[in-house]
Amino acid sequence: MEKASNSERVTTVDEYLARVPAGQRALLEKLRKTIKATAPKAVEVISYQIPSYKYHGMLVGFGAAKDFCSFFVMSSTFLSDHKEELKEFDTTKSAIHFSAERPLPASLVKKLVKERMAQNETGVRRKKSASKPRGTK
What we know:
Blueprint: H1 13-18, H2 22-38, E1 43-47, E2 50-54, E3 58-64, E4 69-72, E5 90-91, E6 95-98, H3 106-131
Antiparallel strand pairs: 1-2, 2-3, 3-4, 4-6, 5-6
Helix pairs in contact: 2-3
């Protein structure tokens, strides 16, 4: 991806995608469509200069690098439970790397987004119950 100078920072996902080479752009547009269909209440934002989605906190994001694209799950522990499903992909603690030769299946993206949504919803419920004074319902 072409690096933007600080004065050229992107502010929308469309701006971000416009700067990505065509082959990667097609992959990321498909990923964007899948995320939006799976999490229609998620808010699309630019965070850390990458397209991201918020749903009761940070949900997922994506980005383009020189030789691959990344799908970020915004959790350092989440992917460890999916090692078998992700064995064909290079991963980090919080990202899955993919390319046109090895694209992410939409079914896998949907599954991961739904699980992250549930994880965020559980976190919100825990925070709410922890903040209630004792003896209240």
